[in-house]
Amino acid sequence: MLGLYAILGGFINEGKVFRHLSxxxxxxxxxxxxxxxxxxxxxxxxxxxxxxxxxxxVVAGFSxxxxxxxxxxxxxxxxSTKVDYVVEHLKRLVTALISYSSxxxxxxPAYGADFRFVxxxxxxxxLETIMKEDIVPLKRTIEHYEGMKSILWLGDRxxxxxxxxxxxxxxxxxxxxxxxxEDLWILxxxxxxxxxxxxxxxxxxxxxxxxxxxxxxxxxxxxDLTGLLIANTFMVADSLKNKDQPFPPNVVEKAVNAxxxxxxxxxxxxxxxxxxxxxxxxxxxxxxxxxxKKGWLTxxxxxxxxxxx
Length: 309
Fold this sequence. Notes:
Layout lengths: L2 E6 L9 E2 L2 E2 L5 H7 L1 E2 L10 E5 L5 E8 L2 E6 L8 H24 L11 H31 L7 H14 L3 E3 L8 E5 L2 E10 L6 H13 L6 E7 L7 H4 L5 H9 L2 E5 H14 L1 H5 L1 H5 L4 E6 L2 E5 L2
Parallel strand pairs: 1-7, 10-11, 11-12, 12-13
Antiparallel strand pairs: 2-4, 3-5, 5-6, 6-7, 8-9, 9-10, 13-14
Helix pairs in contact: 1-2
């Protein structure tokens, strides 16, 4: 068995705390789940064997051969004054180290990849072809839709940028104004057709939120232009059920009285999914369905609806 030297702790990474560690080496799962967060950060190309990563794909734990031994750099949760907790934490580490070192002995050295059998070479070439032709495009598709869904949890300027990209994917022409008071415009043949405000809220939409968009419309001297208020409500909800709360009736009534269309980002996601399944022609007709409308734009009972009180 390799000699083991474990180093606990890490370097401060601009004071940022990384949470929810992604674990590559399953032997350390129990130990790292106990840690939960770290302030360490290394580039993957600077380490030998990455053990765990932060959410930003930065290496938080790694190992490196030193002579006949193995050096490990790991985040730690030590800091408690309770002896029982410290002992249990270190027991998890010891168990992980024993399992990890045993596996490392059985793993091929780096030069193992330098010799290949003919059939092995053909199998690897076939695998690379499958990865390139099938898996990579699928991963790109998943990444695309994960980016689309980000309007469900982002806020502030990040939400505006993500929403702008979302609307463009819906086939709409958009423009972000330099003044940015109303966030963005939806265009029709390069002409500003819908004045749009995007809000990230840790609560539901209120009548006051609607009044602000109405004020922007008046300030821009376009009182008759369609107003669209997109709200990412309940941003920090702990479940989709808790996030998916309807607008209050008095808020919908205020929107109708102010000639404004209101919608939630979760409504937009459902509308996009519906239109995409219906085909490109349905996406093209979306803009016409928004101009001059007021009330709550949502997706209910299998169809796009504008709810009025």
